[in-house]
Amino acid sequence: MNVTNKPNPDGSTNGFQSQLQVQQQNGWEQGSSRLRPTKPYPAPTARYQDIVRDANLFWGTLQAFHKILGTKYKVATVGGTSLDLHRLFVEVTSRGGIEKVIVDRKWKEVILTFNFKDTITSASFVVRKSYLSMLYHYEQVYYFGRQGIPPPTPGTPVQAHDDMVSGTIDAKFDGGYVVTVILGSEQLKGVLFHVPDNVSQSSHAEGTSSSQNLGDGTSNSQSRKRAKYAPRDPFRPKSNRSGYNFFFAENYARLKPSYHGQERAISKRIGFLWNNLSEAERQVYQEKGMRDKERYRTELMEYKSNNSTPNAQ
């Protein structure tokens, strides 16, 4: 597959091209060869209605289906439990199939039926990936009754060495680039991020990220706005911190030596650790946040009281 990209007016295209090539090597081409069988679809051996009613029949036909096509049969695990593919198949096909679910934006509705724990942040991705690899082609035969050569799996471009992928950098901002990619007949828009080495701990602790500021000058204007409204009085109480802020600061200091210059990686790691805390562990930090909030409220009342007195020093 050939890759070209039009240069930005300032000629800066290398970062975009290299990241685009990595995506092709690590995701698109591998995914297409893995998810698109080369053999024709086999004839269904059971009716859709019977498969919906009988989970054992479903598992038997699914296993045989993958064996005939020569595709990989592997059930994913979510939160330490094997994913119930029968239930997933029923939930998706009852809404018209995976393509209709995606178009109608009902994927979240499907995920909610499984009642995954909030701490399992990757559940949606894992379940969708499992459906595409394990159930999409099964759906074509046992739900739609299709025959012949399998079509491409949604979200997985067909591997074709003659395809030309072209890309343009539409805008550059502090956090990276806004890009457009032409893939066959599709035009895809997205953002490529990079994180400067000098991003401060405080910016992450406050939940800010330069990568969210799209468009030239946006980051600087917001910085000026924050500076404009920042308290000038040195005696004004320090703003309160949330439980997550305390957790972030504690772990940032611990992880920084191992992730030197990788601010985004540190933030993602801390977010992962926070999401995997038990309720009791998280409560410790939330109580710190509540105490600090009360401290700030008390100090602010005292500060305002002192400053409302004409002759207060």
TrEMBL record:
Residues 52-143 form the ARID domain. PROSITE patterns: ARID, HMG_BOX_2. Residues 237-304 bind DNA. Keywords: DNA-binding, Nucleus. Gene3D superfamilies: ARID DNA-binding domain, High mobility group box domain. It comes from the Eukaryota. Residues 1-42, 202-240 are annotated as: Disordered. One of its GO terms (cellular component) is nucleus. Residues 237-304 form the HMG box domain. Residues 1-35, 202-222 have a biased composition (Polar residues). This is High mobility group B protein 10. The gene is LOC100793029.
